[in-house]
Amino acid sequence: MTGVLAFLGRNTLGLLRYASGLYDLAHQTAYWTFVAPFKGRGLKWGSAVHQMVLAGFNALPIISLISVFVGMVLAFQGAYQLEKLGAGYYVAALVGVSMTRELGPLITAIVVAGRSGSAFAAEIGTMKVSEEIDALEAMGLNSVKYLVVPKYLALLLMMPCLTLVSDLAGILGGAIFGLYQLDQSFSMYILATRDALVMRDISTGLVKSVVFGLIITKVGCYEGFAVRGGAEGVGKATTAAVVISIFLIILADLVFTALFYYTS
Amino acid sequence: MAEQLTGPIIRVVDLVSHYGERRVLNRVSLEVQAGETMVIVGGSGAGKSTLLRHVIRLERPTSGHVYIKNYDVCHIPEEQFNLLRRKIGMLFQSAALFNSLTVEENVALPLRELTQLEESTIHIMTRIKLDLVGLSGVQHYMPAELSGGMKKRAGLARALAMDPEILLFDEPSAGLDPITAAGIDSLILKLKLAFKMTIVVVTHEMASAFTIADRITVMHEGEVIAAGAPEEIRNSPHARVQQFLHRVPEGETKDAQAHLRALTQSGRF
């Protein structure tokens, strides 16, 4: 019994420590992004743009491709049910609404967590192991400002953009299915999608994507800074960064979806 | 911070530090005078690198104080410490060059970020520092393309970029062959003579310590066990100091019973 309690207590404490660590990093990042530049302490725009290319632009092909496939899969599965009711026309609505509200942001977040979250953890972790973080601090250069803020800004701006691309690609996937299976013309499919979508579908998806971007940067960088003990530690941090960000993304997704559901 | 300084430039008072539960520094006190070269020697795990990290506030102590130029390092605000920190250069054990930047960019980084100098001035200053450590001609190399000794030199050039008054070395000769290590030693001597810098070196190479030191501090298991001029250390009656000087290995376990117990009982359960 005491063993169980000790186990629970230890894990709860560990969880709280992790949460407070993430909060602390979020706090510092927000300061160095939104407050410090106005006090004349500068912002690393150059590296932010570099990160935008790495995390945003370079992710375009894979996110588009996956989204087209998911759009097609959704159309197949939707048609399987809807055609029984003779409502094949509504496949476009189903694909459009699911992509913009849910799957666009989620697919984008999962791909970015895998591509960039892991890269953040590996980069910062390696720098930690090779004393580069210490060297930065020893020079009086803030490691959050130099390493976290550019990544944070990059994802803050790139996540909504990537999500829009994912939304469009998913709808395109559905349209391909519509073209061949439902004998709908391309323009008809797009019209049906437009009729079904409201602005709120797209905007809630974009709000989510920004939150997912925050989670990916925070967890990736936090895991990087927390690296202990050489190359093995970097490997563990990279894995943890991906697993924990995906978990938190799904959790946040649930919270936001519920919120949007009850407030609509 | 231009006021006249009286007393030691670095003063460590009763410093206690823990890594988790383990105590790594136990009431360590140390004074370094301006312009002198202090060498801290001791075995692995003696806490000497940790002590150095405290001086530049990379670690926070459990209790005790570190004063640099009479400023309490642990308790002054970040802004003020950043100004103080510009007067301190540190060469890390692994040189800690930024792997994504060339050698030249590494040396120029503190100048670019912390000063408003013209790019052309920064360029010239970078060349001067690299020349000073004998690294002319490799400025466009990436750190990964350099040998261990060259990395150390490049790291030293970066530590010198801001013309520091205090220079800290963490194991400057670790992982280097004897000839390269001697080269680093002579470089340290050169800096000491040419710039009158205050230098603190952490090392376990006694030969190197006796070459460069004005004073030597010997640490063992988180405590200072001897301090003084090289001659005093050489003649110290302390058993540990003599053991360290003459490279005597750790003795066999005296208590056979305790040894047996340690072997047969597993640690965790």
Explain what the structure shows.
The complex is a heterodimer of chains A (264) and B (269). With 264 residues, chain A is mainly α. Chain A has one domain. Helix content of chain A is 86%, strand content 0%. Chain A is built from nine helices and no strands. In chain A, helix 6 crosses helix 7. The longest helix of chain A has 39 residues. The mean pLDDT of chain A is 90. Chain B has a domain of 163 residues: Rossmann fold. In chain B, the strands form two sheets. In chain B, strands 6-7-8-3-9-10 form a six-stranded mixed β-sheet, sandwiched between helices. A four-stranded antiparallel β-sheet of chain B has the order 2-1-4-5, with helices on one face. The mean pLDDT of chain B is 86. At the A-B interface, helix 5 of A face helix 2 and helix 3 of B.
Kindly state the percentage of residues in helix of chain A: over 70%
CATH architecture of the domain at 1-87 and 194-269 in chain B: 3-Layer(aba) Sandwich
Strand order of the largest sheet of chain B: 6-7-8-3-9-10
The unreliable regions of chain B are none
Report how far the terminal alpha carbons of chain B are from each other: 56 Å
Oligomer: heterodimer
Largest sheet of chain B at a glance?
Answer: 6 strands, mixed
Work out the helix count of chain B: 10
Q: Shape of chain B from CA axes?
A: globular
Secondary-structure element series of chain B: EEEHEEHEHHHEHEHEEHHH
Mean pLDDT of chain A: 90
* Poorly predicted tracts of residues of chain A: none
Strand content of chain A: under 5%
